[in-house]
Design goal:
homodimer, about 240 residues, alpha+beta, Arc Repressor Mutant, subunit A, 2 domains, four-stranded antiparallel beta sheet, three-stranded antiparallel beta sheet, 9 helices, 10 strands, DNA-binding
Chain lengths: ~240, ~240
DNA sequence: CGAGGGTTTGACTTGAGTCAATTCTGGTGG
DNA sequence: CCACCAGAATTGACTCAAGTCAAACCCTCG
């Protein structure tokens, strides 16, 4: 474990063993560091945006807004995650991005990334893996909304987040710190904030998880996994071209 | 319009004007043609699969199955669509793929694709565009499930499908032929089949769309668009690196 | 001319939403 | 150190969209 490196390096390192040279390249990507205040949109839909970011610290969410005013959060980004990779490819962003907490992120020019890939092709594979994992998470999220009831959805969500945070050293099987409000959870899970509250109470009273004071604590990990059939294989696929 | 070419070429052609050389390359990709019977899984979860397909004719769906027996259809593939691009990158497929009708598809080896890209780099951009459009569709689908009610979901779904079919010459603003059953619609939209039926009746009685005898007919296109705030920009993004 | 999917419909149940009020908490300024 | 405030979390009472169950109906194809 390279606990002394960035969350990004740490995440990729869980996938391919990285050499010192590769680690150094990754660190170089973090040179253009920027900071964002909580709750002020970083990117909004339709905006012409040419750079992507790697989150160094803090939490971000990407969401779509409906004319009705309803909001659907597509995903949360935590340290080590890419942000707006799509908006680099396409001229305009197709969703909004908002920091939940104060966020430190490194701006990444497409060119820098490509240069790094040329020097160390294994990095390309690792980044591709990360992107594909993100896609798998969106699909799993889709299943949540389509075919799981509120309690299972919540359980699944909290477990997935836990697994992701653990990967970058921000959580354990005991629990993790989580700055999300019940409103944010509601917009991610397709529920009302009131119902989120009730579901959290149920889970707590059943001794499965508690989420209070910004801390998620797994009281009965196995029970929670069983409740929602959590299967983490989609999070730790073996990699492309890497056999 | 190159009506005499494959749906795949036609779809990419809507994005970049393709030269004769490029068109020829695309046609070559269709050399290894295979046929699949309806309802017999082409790929199942966990299977080690190394080839991708381009659908030439027929409809396919990719879905995930829950232990409870519930099913969530992630997307439908129609002629011109890629199938299992992800399962080529990763060793194992992470969802099931099933033909809805008899399907003709061309097997595409990763190598062939890469060779074509080397010869005509613009093709890479076009394929990347297509892949990214698919991703945007999944996100839109997520919004459907999370924040739209049954009627809006259905309207949005039928409109999106119409736009996709039109792109490959299989539909118009009047309507299109559609082999989906109400059970399939239910599994895609996160509803019960019974409710799908009721929603379709409502839409028909309101004179918006009718879906009967395997035909979707738009009775009031504008009204339908208004009902669900259909915004097709996510389907015809301008392309990457293509300004 | 059956048989078996697929489609419809009605009657009833229920998970989740809405509305509205109350409590808790962390941060602020005096 | 404390009163105060705004945002967040809770809770209860009521409503409603969508699900479930069960029974017809109806094409279409062998």
């Amino acid at each position: 474990m390279n606990t002394h490196h960035t969350p990004f390096a740490r995440k990729l390192g869980a996938f391919v063993a990285l050499s010192d040279i590769e680690l150094a390249l990754l660190d170089q990507l973090h040179s253009r560091r920027r900071s964002f205040a909580a709750r002020r949109d970083m990117v909004h839909e339709g905006q012409v945006e040419r750079s992507a970011y790697i989150v160094a610290s803090g939490w971000v969410c990407s969401y779509k807004l409906l004319p009705s005013g309803a909001r659907q959060i597509v995903d949360f980004q935590i340290p080590g995650d890419f942000l707006g990779l799509r908006s680099v490819l396409f001229r305009t962003a197709d969703h909004n991005i908002e920091p939940i907490t104060r966020v430190q992120a490194s701006e990444v020019q497409a060119r820098d990334l490509l240069d790094a890939f040329n020097t160390a092709p294994r990095l390309a594979a690792a980044v591709l893996w990360a992107a594909s994992r993100d896609e798998a998470m969106v699909v799993e999220h889709l299943v949540d909304l389509g075919r799981r009831d509120a309690k299972q959805r919540m359980a699944h969500f909290l477990l997935e987040l836990g697994a992701r945070l653990k990967l970058v050293g921000l959580g354990t099987n005991e629990g993790y710190a989580c700055p999300l409000t019940q409103y944010l959870l509601a917009d991610a899970l397709g529920l009302s904030a009131v119902h989120v509250n009730r579901v959290l109470r149920d889970l707590r009273e059943e001794g499965l998880v508690s989420f209070q004071q910004g801390k998620v604590i797994f009281e009965n990990f196995a029970g929670l996994v069983a409740l929602c059939d959590f299967d983490r294989t989609y999070l730790d696929h073996e990699g492309p071209l890497m056999r």
